[in-house]
Input
Amino acid sequence: MATATSETGSLEDTRPKTPEPPRPAEQVHVFEPYRYALPKLGPYFRDVWARRQFATHMASSTLKGQHFDSFFGQFWLVLNPMLLALVYFLLTSVLGGQSGAGTSAMNHFVGLLTGLFAFFYTRNVIQFAASSITGGGKMIINMSFPKILLPLSTTFTAMLTYFPTLLVYACFYIGVHHSVAIGILWIIPIFIIQTVFSFGLGLLFAAVTLYFRDMSTLLPYVLRIWMYITPVLFSLSYVKSEVAANKLPHAIEAFYKWDPFSPIINSWNTALVGDGPRPFWKGGIINGHYYAAASYTPQMTEILIGAGCAVIALVVGAWYFMSREREFAVRL
Output
């Protein structure tokens, strides 16, 4: 038995073996660092347009989640800036020795509402957009879509929270003016310019916050300081009159002019409040100087400068955001 087994084993060893098929070459994945470059703009923006309803539905669901669609939610949206306007009215008028009686006090209060409501809209667009990427981490990791839709949806959210304040402002405006002129239609292009400007800054801070998480804590303080150094509490026309009276240095007027947000705020103040040295100024003599009546037509130079600043903010913010979009999932 042993001999037979050995012979059989020797015969199997002598048989020619069929060669094994070659194994496929193993694929080697090489992970390289991302290169900051813009995607193909045509397909990118077509995808954004195809998913535009995603941004609007997300904005409405956000408001419902925060109970802003209820009466008391909308009431708080209006009450909060009005209470702040009342506080600033006391600081700038009563404590500052500029308080008036009756109509002049209401004029000043409505002037404060004009700047505060406009600035709060820009502030909300920037703050909501700054937290849109870090707050939407699960969607970014699990879904493939243009990430610019997230700050776009927060812009719609800020817009929906801004519209109720306009209704309350309209009541104060009509109560002071008792009429509405055709020049009030200037607020439509001014609002579009401000939205583009705010959205561009929102895109910039949305990407920056992903790299520097402390920016979300620092940003509210930065925006508050920005409010104090823009023509919100004091209009540019008022600052000019104080500089002309040698009550303020000329550097403050120059600083107001170089602020990129100043042309937009000045246009709001001109279209709704008037461009005189005082809010709702109708003409007269101040400190021996005659000032003409206020004009309610914005200056075309300020409209063009504001539009230019808005385009620059949008281009810079969109370029920085879209060029780093591929890295968002890794950073999260």
